[in-house]
Structure formats: structure tokens, C-alpha cells
Amino acid sequence: MEFKYPYFFIIGIVAALIWSLDYWKIFSKVSLPLPPHRSTNEIKKILRFFIFTIGLTAWGFLGFSLMQPRLPQKYNPSNIQVNDVLFSIDVSRSMLAEDLKPNRLEVAKEKIREFVKLRPTDRISVIIFAEKVLTLLPLTTDPGLADRVLSEISIGYLGSGTNIGDGLGLAVARAVDSNTKNKVVVLLTDGVANVGSMTPLEAAELAKKNGIKVYTIGLGTDDDAKIPVGNGVFGTQYAMIPGGSIDYKVLKEISQLTGGKFYPAKSEKALRDIFDDIQKLEKTQIEVNHQIVYDEKYYPYLLTGIILLMLSGLSRRYILKDLV
Fold it and tell me: pLDDT for 39-85, tens place per residue?
């Protein structure tokens, strides 16, 4: 929640102070009323304090409503220029390696989702690849849909190879079909290309030809990592992935060729820092003009304040017999 006029609460405080001085008759002339019955006097004191609490609460609601609390709901584009950000994500079995906890794929999904949430005006697409490639999400401006799709990525139904070339090539083809001016591909993998009709560098040449930058991320540690391969008598069985299996050389060449940047991600923190860096690099490229549609929240507070203030005033008049 945010406030349109955050300092207007001061008006409510001043009004509550003036009302309180009047309520307790701080500056009224001293009078000498006849002493009422003791029990009646005690009850009236309790009622006076209770009614004062109602009035003070009313001014609290009114002061809060003056700040005009509201919730940003969505961005209403107005001649908006957006980025196309296409993620090409490796979902080969090695992404289950547990050198990053709980595994490489889950860490990648979490950090990509955080990145997408910070770019609500951009169009997002998700391509996944293993032996086969698949467009999991065409370009969309719906951040909620993108978040759901990313959260549901899993491993196992695209084969067992690592088809980096076709995975990158499909992302580039999707970007080429778009009429958006600024387009980038984020390629994330933990392996070496071993299948596919297009080599990674051929896909990079296609990206360069069409002015599409490719940021490449090599995910995983240099040490041997373990992946689960099934359950045995003694629990989950693991197999080792040889250390240094990420093709850093090719990933660097792809990014250099397209004007992007290469990042090795050997930890969860490193991956978070990488997406922060990409965020900054791409935010400097365009100016986004937009209007935010708000859900105004001050009406219930204003209504509650008015009702409580009226209740307090009527109680003073007819219960306490004050002249208000």
C-alpha cells in the first residue's frame, strides 16, 4: 500500500487535538455545578472517556483517509516502449544436480521469477530445451502468467540431451517475429551442446544478424556434482557429473558475438547478482512511460471516521448532555 498525500495525516492530528481541547473544555470558563450522586458521577466519567475514545478513533480514521491510501493494480500503457525478454532454459537431467540447493533448476526458476517481477511492463517468453525444444510461453505482458509458467517448469519430457543450438535458435526466431525494438535473450545452461540441427554459434550468428543481444549463464560449480538417479534400498541413489562440464568457451563466444555478456553462476548468490546486473544493463536502454492504475482504499476509512464522529457527537449531546 502507498499514500498519495503521506503528510496529510498531520491535518488529522491537529483536528483531533482541537476537538480534544473542546471535548474536555480545557479553555472553558470554570463553573460550579451542584455535586451529583457519587455513583452517577463515576459512571459519567467512564462514559465520557469511552465517548472520547470513539471520537479520537474517528479522527484517526479521518486522518488516515486524508493520506489517500491506495494499491497499485497494473500498468496502463501510454505510448509505451517495452523490452522483449526471452528466456532459453536448459531442462536436461543434469539441472537436477544438487551443488546448488535444492538443485540447479529450482534455484534458476526462483531467480528468474524474481527478475520477471521487477519488469512488469516488459514482454516475457520462456523456451525450454533438453534433447527437444519447446516454447513454453509465447511473449506476454502478463507477469502473473509468466510467474506461474516459470514455477511449473520441470524435467523429463524433452529427452536427455542438451540442445543449446536449437534452444537459442527458437528464442531468436520468436524475437525476430516481434516488432518490439529492444530484444534480448537470456540463455541459461549447465552443459555442452550434444544434439540439435543448429549449433550454438550458428544460432548466435542469427541473433547478431537481427540485432538481438544474448546474455549467457553457465550454471553450476566446477567440482563434481551429484544428480539423483532413483531410489534404492538405502534411499536415493546418485550419479556424479564430471566437474567442468559447462561449455564456458562457447557461452563466451555467443555473448561476445551478439553484444551481450557471459556470466558463470556457481552459487545462488552469484545467480541473483547476475540477474541484478542484467536488470541494470537493460533498464538503461529505454525510457518507459506509463500510468499506474490504482485501487483507491480511502473510502472505507473516511466513511468509518464520519460515522464514529457522528456517534461521538450524538453521545455527547444526548448522553452526557454537553452543549456541542
Answer: 667 888 888 899 999 999 999 999 999 999 888 766 555 555 678 99
Phi, psi dihedral angles at 236 (to 5 degrees): -65, 135
Residue keyed to cell 464520519: 306
**CA angle 259-285-143, nearest 5°?**
100
Give the phi and the psi of residue 213 in degrees, each rounded to 5: -80, 145
DSSP structure class, residue 152: T
Closest CA to 194 of 98, 92, 285: 92
Rounded percentage of the chain residues whose pLDDT exceeds 70 = 87
What distance in Å separates the CA atoms of residue 154 and residue 141, rounded to the nearest whole number? Answer: 23
Stretch (H or E) spanning 37: none
List residues bridging with 133 in a β-sheet: 129
Q: Could you give the angle at the alpha carbon of 218 between the alpha carbons of 99 and 280, nearest 5°?
A: 110
Enter the pTM of the model.
Answer: 0.63
pLDDT tens-digit profile of 293-317? 778 888 899 999 899 999 998 988 8
Q: What share of the chain is helix, strand, coil (3-state, %, to 5)?
A: 45, 25, 30
Q: What is the DSSP secondary-structure string of 87-124?
A: EEEE-SGGGG-TTSSS-HHHHHHHHHHHHHHT-TTSEE
281 Cβ contact list (under 8 Å, min separation 6): 261
Where in 17-102 does DSSP place strands (E)? 69-77, 83-90
Q: Which residues of 287-299 are buried (b: 16+ CB within 10 A; e: fewer)?
A: eeeeeeeeeebbe
Residue-range domains of the chain with CATH: 2-71+293-318 (no CATH), 81-283 (3.40.50.410)
Mean pLDDT (whole number) for 210-219: 96
Q: Under 8 Å CB-to-CB from 149, ≥6 apart: which residues?
A: 126, 136, 137
Alpha-carbon distance 54 to 26, whole Å?
Answer: 19
Checking if the pLDDT of 320 tops 90, the result is no
